[in-house]
Amino acid sequence: MKRLIAFSAAPILAVAVFAAAANADPIADRQALMKDQGRAIGSIAPIAKGEKPFDAATVMTALKKLNDDAQKLDPATLFPAGSDTGDTTAAPKIWEDNAAFVAAVDKYKADTAAAVAADPKDLESFKTAFNQVTQNCGTCHQAFRVKKN
Ligand code: HEC
Questions:
Q1: Residue among 34, 39, 109, 144 whose CB has most ligand 1 atoms within 8 A, to mutate
Q2: What is the C-alpha separation between 33 and 36, in angstroms, rounded?
Q3: Residue range 55-65, pLDDT digits in tens
């Protein structure tokens, strides 16, 4: 029995170590977060375009998910100095003009929080919230992302 406990503790330890080292790869972490946001947007974009009927619950789930992800966007830990090289499309401007990047992140966080607070109950109010949130994606990508060759 003792041995069994020792054995089963090993993977738990491994998980704990992994969690502590999670930010060892900030590029992978921020890209995963961005992809997750992409999925949330993808689930409600067809509603904004009128391709799918408005559904308040679906919309709210996606907006909450998006806001949760946005609030996790911490420039200091996800975009630390030195993480501008490697498999990344992050533009040097993030570090050259960090104040502007932090401001863009803060605006995005405020807009996703406002979209959740708006709690859209019809297509029109949803579209307003959707546009408010998604303009951040394009604006930030244009300013702070480079195209991969
Ligand atoms: C404040 C700036 C900012 C905002 C706002 C932002 N992004 Fe990004 N996004 C970035 C940066 C910088 C990268 C490049 C990350 C890298 O490659 O290291 C990126 C990369 C991505 C990627 C590619 C991830 C990968 O695997 O390479 C996707 C998808 C993405 N963003 C989706 C979104 C969506 C959808 C939104 C809006 C809902 C959004 N982003 C809002 C800055 C932003």
A1: 34
A2: 5
A3: 999 999 999 99
